[in-house]
């Protein structure tokens, strides 16, 4: 990553390994490739290939001082298009049994992932993982199919029983409108106490993100459920219809900060000013230190002046923005050791991680590698600081 010379070919190789169907390029079947990938990217970005490895990583993360983790299962179940449809007795086309088995398999994998996190932690849920029954219905903006709804209910109940929470990952716009409708329906059903169990993701880079946040807030206020929002900037800029996304990075930054501010200040949208802001919680999922600092300052200021706000928590992806994560951990620990009670309200810091075999994590790893192309330049100030600290410890 630090060598411009190696970066381009390394990304090209990762691309081939990620998309190849050949056994030679399958890291779960090729021992040497497996070791190479684990050594270079997998161990940096992923939690582990099985329960034992994941538990060890989660324990290490918590030992550093993080107050929690978010865990997602990377396996993307791929179905042969020829196996998707079947014909029933009347001759009409239905989904094949294989499609229903995929929903079950997805539920089992998600429940297994849930069992690897603890109370207060989050489960990251990818609804598209349930296969064509979920994806087709989401794309057509239809209600949640019964088989998927039953699986989701079971997952939500298990998370609640365990004292954990869950969030729904955001997708590209072709799916996201349907996904938002489903997320609202799931929150309506399961967010019945003051603190939300289920969070939906809002992508600040979309021109429509403020209106989407307004819609979530208004519905929660009208119908009396609690609202969980995980706020991201958005990861699909290279694949999304560009006109849907803010024209500049600065506009995305402003949009992100505006939505965070609206939640933290409990501001009702203009056309719903007569309603009371609902019970709500905000999860800031960002690597942007300026956005995190702004939101935390607003949160603190409101708490110190006894103005109402919402629960605020922050998180970064494993292997990324550790300088920001560690600063958040340090602030939290400082606040805990401070005797002034008002200071104890700093947000908890989380690390978000994925687990699965090396082959199952390849799509995830490829996305991380692309996202980190500019990381070396972005974190140059950290390298300088680390070198200075090393010198101080050796010679100081
Ligand atoms: C814990 C966690 C969970 C996440 N979950 C999801 C998820 O479910 N779905 C999802 O889509 N993403 C998700 N992301 C990724 C996220 O959307 C961002 O891609 C990533 O975090 C980088 O954005 P940033 O806020 O860290 O800040 P920065 O690094 O400051 O911003 C980079 C982002 O700015 C935006 N941007 C860049 N250039 C432009 C431009 N020219 N015009 C307009 N906008 C621009 C893009 O969104 C880009 O990703 C998650 C991130 C984290 C930390």
UniProtKB/TrEMBL annotation:
Record's Gene3D superfamilies?
Answer: 3.20.20.220
Which Gene Ontology terms cover its molecular function?
A: FAD binding; proline dehydrogenase activity
**GO biological process per UniProt:** L-proline catabolic process to L-glutamate
| Span of domain Proline dehydrogenase | 55-380
- UniProtKB keywords: FAD, Flavoprotein, Oxidoreductase, Proline metabolism
InterPro entries to which the protein is assigned, alphabetical: FAD-linked_oxidoreductase-like, Proline_DH_dom, Proline_oxidase
Superkingdom, natural source: Eukaryota
Pfam families in the cross-refs: Pro_dh
Give the cofactors, semicolon-separated.
Answer: FAD
Instruction: Indicate the segments annotated as coiled coil, or none if absent.
Output: none
Q: Give the family, as the similarity comment puts it.
A: Belongs to the proline oxidase family.
The protein's job, in short, is: Converts proline to delta-1-pyrroline-5-carboxylate.
Q: What is this protein called?
A: Proline dehydrogenase
């Amino acid at each position: 990553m630090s060598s411009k010379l190696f970066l381009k070919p390394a990304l090209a190789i990762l691309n081939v390994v990620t998309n190849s169907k050949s056994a030679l390029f399958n890291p779960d079947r090729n021992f040497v490739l497996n070791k190479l990938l684990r050594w270079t990217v997998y161990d940096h970005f992923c939690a582990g290939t099985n329960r034992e490895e994941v538990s060890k990583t989660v324990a290490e993360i918590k030992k550093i001082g993080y107050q929690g983790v978010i865990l997602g299962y990377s396996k993307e179940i791929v179905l042969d298009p020829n196996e998707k449809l079947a014909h029933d007795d009347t001759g009409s086309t239905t989904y094949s049994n294989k499609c229903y088995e995929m929903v079950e398999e997805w539920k089992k994998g998600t429940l297994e992932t849930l069992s690897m996190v603890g109370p207060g932690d989050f489960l990251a849920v990818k609804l598209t993982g349930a296969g064509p029954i979920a994806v087709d219905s989401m794309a057509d903006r239809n209600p949640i199919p019964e088989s998927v709804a039953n699986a989701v209910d079971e997952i939500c109940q298990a998370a609640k029983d365990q004292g954990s929470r869950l969030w729904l990952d955001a997708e590209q716009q072709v799916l996201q409108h349907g996904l938002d409708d489903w997320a609202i329906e799931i929150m309506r059903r399961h967010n019945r106490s003051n603190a939300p169990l289920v969070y939906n993701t809002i992508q600040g880079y979309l021109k429509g993100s403020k209106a989407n946040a307004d819609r979530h807030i208004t519905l929660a206020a009208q119908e009396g459920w609690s609202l969980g929002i995980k706020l991201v900037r958005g990861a699909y800029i290279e694949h999304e219809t560009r006109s849907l996304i803010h024209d500049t990075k600065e506009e995305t930054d402003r949009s992100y900060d505006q939505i965070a501010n609206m939640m933290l200040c409990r501001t009702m949208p203009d056309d719903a000013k007569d309603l009371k802001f609902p019970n709500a919680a905000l999860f800031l999922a960002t690597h942007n230190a300026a956005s995190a600092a702004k939101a935390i300052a607003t949160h603190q200021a409101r708490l110190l002046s006894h103005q109402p706000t919402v629960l605020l928590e922050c998180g970064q992806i494993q292997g990324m923005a550790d300088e920001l994560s560690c600063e958040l951990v340090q602030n939290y620990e400082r606040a805990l050791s401070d005797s002034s009670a008002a200071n104890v309200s700093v947000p908890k810091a989380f690390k978000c991680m994925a687990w699965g075999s090396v082959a199952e994590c390849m799509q995830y790893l490829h996305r991380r590698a692309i996202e980190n192309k500019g990381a070396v330049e972005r974190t140059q100030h950290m390298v300088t600081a680390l070198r200075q600290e090393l010198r101080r410890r050796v010679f100081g």
